[in-house]
Amino acid sequence: MAEREPGTRLRLLGDAAAEFKIDCNIPIRRYFRSGQEMIKMAEVYHNEGSLEAAYILYMKYMTLFVEKLKAHRDFSQVLPAEKKRVKGVVKDVMGKTEVLKLTLKSRFEEEHKVWLKEEQVRRWEEQREQARRDEEMKEAGRRKMEEVASIERDRQVALWHQAQLDKEDRENRGVGPPAGVGEIQDYTPSRGADRVVYDPNKYSDIASAPSQANEGLPSYDSVVGPSVSPPPSYDRTAPSYDRTAKPAPNITALSISHPTPSTSTPTPAFDRSAKPIISAPTGLRTVMVPGDLSEAFLAVAKSNSDRGVETLGTLGGHLANNKFIVSHLLIPRQEGKSDSCTMEGLEDVWDVHDKENIIFLGWVHTHPAYSVFLSSVDMHNQYEWQHMLPEALAIVCSIKDGVVGNLRLTPAGMSEVGGCSLTNFHPHSKEPPLWEEASHVEVNWSQKVVLKDLR
């Protein structure tokens, strides 16, 4: 994130805060309650130093009550006193948000400066490393060329010596060179007194150019053909050769392979249009559940379970170190049946939450005669809670099977149930699955739940 401009990072945090929609099918009082819990969580993040997360929640609160909640169909029914209270909170939050914005901007600027320096060093090191690799490649290519050139020089010298031997041999035998080799067919060797007699003492093992005595002889090209060039000059002593052994008759010219230059790795470009990875919660935060939660709930629900009647409770807790800690199990006033349970005392639950300074983290209910699953009524209840808090749990205790499941709606479930206006029991799609086992739950066996029966 440090590679982004400070202004861009702040804008992206604001965009993240505005990414939610208002569902008019959810009672508007739930949104007012959710707003209060946003403030509680923002204060926790702020105190823990997670300033970006606090900034997002404060911005989300202002966006909710200044802009989006006015579109709710029941907004006109909100009491003036409640609107006035929220207006005062918005003003207070706005001041905190401005202070946070300045703090974050200053921090982002420092981080960006550090990143620019580190990026400059990284690029310099990358260029230096690339230059080193290029130089190594060039050096390897140069050594290869020298090796090939050395082999070619030795080959040329061998060919030249062989040509000299062949010529001397023909002269000693008084015959001409084979027809078809260069232009030798037009040459007739002298047989008179001007013929040079072969004297081995005149030759040495050191390569040298033909002597003046050989001026009357045919040229090198006319003997070995125009395709073979005379031996090149060089500053080292030519190797000695065994004149009693002929070189291999078919000498294939070496193929010189030129090393392919490597393509430099381009400096990575940062996509400034991409969504940021912020220090605020990304994905689902962990929910810690007390080890005795199920046991405590089943004990208080036993009288109903024995009669085949469902029982429900609510889960309260707090945010700490970016984790939700379930600490309270509240049993509100309710009306239970064999296949459903309706909560009647939600306001009592909110009162306890305010006194204990806790927030809503989910709910739990029994299935006396059924297995662990979410019925259509259960899914609609869970939708309202999960719409407000994605981590909200729906714990189902099957009395029949003796199994407890931590459930939540899938993205497909949130989409389908959110678009459904039916009530009571009704069919829903089976594929893709609308609910699933929650994977963000951990059990703390050393923690004991606080049970409050409000019935």
Characterise the protein shown here.
The chain contains ten helices and eleven strands. The radius of gyration is 46 Å and the shape is elongated. Helix 1 (6-17) crosses helix 3 and helix 1 (6-17) crosses helix 4. The protein starts with 5 loop residues before the first helix and ends with a strand. 43% of the residues lie in helices and 13% in strands. It is of the alpha/beta class and 455 residues long. It has helices at 6-17, 28-48, 51-68, 80-173, 220-224, 293-300, 302-306, 346-356, 376-388, 411-418; strands at 287-290, 312-320, 323-331, 334-336, 341-343, 359-367, 393-398, 403-409, 435-437, 441-444, 450-453.
For the largest beta-sheet, the strand count, sense and barrel status come to: 9 strands, mixed
Strand content: 5-15%
Radius of gyration, CA atoms, in whole angstroms: 46 Å
Order of helices and strands: HHHHHEHHEEEEHEHEEHEEE
The number of helical runs is 10
Large-scale geometry: elongated
The residue ranges in which pLDDT falls below 50 over 5 or more consecutive positions are: 182-195, 209-215, 223-282
User: Count the strands?
Assistant: 11
User: How far is the N terminus from the C terminus?
Assistant: 51 Å
Secondary structure: helix percent: 40-55%
Mean pLDDT score, rounded? 81
Structural class: alpha/beta
Summarize the topology.
Layout: H1 6-17, H2 28-48, H3 51-68, H4 80-173, H5 220-224, E1 287-290, H6 293-300, H7 302-306, E2 312-320, E3 323-331, E4 334-336, E5 341-343, H8 346-356, E6 359-367, H9 376-388, E7 393-398, E8 403-409, H10 411-418, E9 435-437, E10 441-444, E11 450-453
Parallel strand pairs: 1-3, 1-10, 3-11, 6-7
Antiparallel strand pairs: 2-3, 2-6, 4-5, 7-8, 8-9
